[in-house]
Amino acid sequence: MKKVVSTMMVLMMSVLLMGAAVAHADDKADAVKMVKDAVALYKASGLEKTLDALNDPKGQFVKGTLFVFAFDENGTLLANATAPEKVGQNLLEVPDSKGKKFRKEFVELAKKDGSGWVDYTNINPKTKLDEPKTSYIEKAGELIIGCGIYKK
To answer: Which structural domains are found in the chain, ordered by start?
Structure first.
């Protein structure tokens, strides 16, 4: 009987872990898609319409905990529908809770490679805890467009 219960527990944990991994992969795919959609909007409609769309808290670029943000190449936040009070601020040198200047890394990665992932920590609005996060960023003209997910 102990062996059956033990086996069942292992199976249940495996299913839960696989589910979390799939959810994380789905979140990453959603983040990349949202960034690519924002880049396409920028290419089709220009800077002003893109920033208007990215700053709209009820718009297509805000979905649950996912939202698209944009910086210029100097680290000034140009769009963030979830933190409009920070728009217009240069955040290049502002570190996360562990001291990492992740926005500086956004800019460096965008200039060097054009796109990629940056890891850092941030307060999760759902849990109110400082949690590991990763953001996909992509350079589009004068913009650095990104979307982050909390690692589960």
So the answer is: 30-150 (3.30.450.20)
